[in-house]
Amino acid sequence: MKIDPRHLMQLSAIVETGGLTEAATLLGSSQPAISRMLSALELRLGQPLVIRDRRPLQPTALGQVLAEQGDAIRLAARRSAEAADALRRGERGTIRIGGTPFFTDALISGMIAEFHQTHPSVRVDQRYGYTTELKTLVKSGQLDLAICPVELLEEGDEDLTFEELLPGRNVVACRVGHPLFKTHPLRPEALLEFPWIEPPPGSALIADLRTALLAIGATHVSVCYAGGSLASIVNYLKVSDSLTILPHSVVFAMQNAKEISAIPLDLEHPRRSLAILRSGVSPAPASSTRFAKHVISAFQELRTLIRQHEQAVVWGSGD
């Protein structure tokens, strides 16, 4: 025999409140409607569900069993409504984000952890990629947003939105206590006396490194290590006199560890910004909108700190 789940929910309310009027109030219904339902259900089942001469109303054995099923249905309905509301507010759900490896490891992963302190029910699925690939993934709806270096939105990017987080600035990174810090005056040519670590294939930093070295007159440099992750490059740097090129924000984010630092030489900078890319066509999940606001706010604070640090350092010319 199939029983309407709504009737089980109504019976559950009757047993919980102990009365037809009280159950109607709880469910936003009317006492006559609840009474008719109860009588029709008892007639169909061929036995009573409540003991009517007791106040508050007491369930029969069958009434108690069915009321418990109604409890479960009411609980599931309430939880479903709560889940839907949480998704609508961006307090639950899954955010699919992409980012370039160095920025993600040095900056974004920590921001994700901070976001989870106030939004613990939101899952973040993160993947690595470089700008061209990440643009494609956002356009196709496989990512909700991407955080990556962007020069300009090109033809074919009309369905993407772009919001700058930090202006592009690269620095020469090395270990704390590198011999170059003791060189006065520091000449750009001195950079060529040490081996270099080349950024991973596909990274825009490779082109930036070549541009910077050409600007100081290099025709050849010694590359001692290539293609490593940020963690492996930092581990290599801190026990060697090698140099590499990194975004200043990445080096700044790691300064508290006191393992790597930036050589105070001003490099030729690409016309590029770290930005959030999102679809301008598909509506974003509320959770991803909340996360984007969190990242933007975090970068506003970081941008101020980096600017203060840059103003405190006397940067020599790399030209």
UniProtKB/TrEMBL annotation:
Keywords of the record: DNA-binding, Transcription, Transcription regulation
Matches recorded under InterPro entries: HTH-type_LysR_regulators (IPR050950), LysR_HTH_N (IPR000847), LysR_subst-bd (IPR005119), WH-like_DNA-bd_sf (IPR036388), WH_DNA-bd_sf (IPR036390)
Name of a matching Pfam family: HTH_1
Family: Belongs to the LysR transcriptional regulatory family.
Keyword Chaperone appears in the UniProt entry: no
Organism of derivation: Sedimentitalea todarodis
Record-annotated HTH lysR-type domain positions: 3-60
CDD domains, alphabetized: PBP2_LTTR_substrate
Record-given protein name: LysR family transcriptional regulator
Top-rank lineage group of the source organism: Bacteria
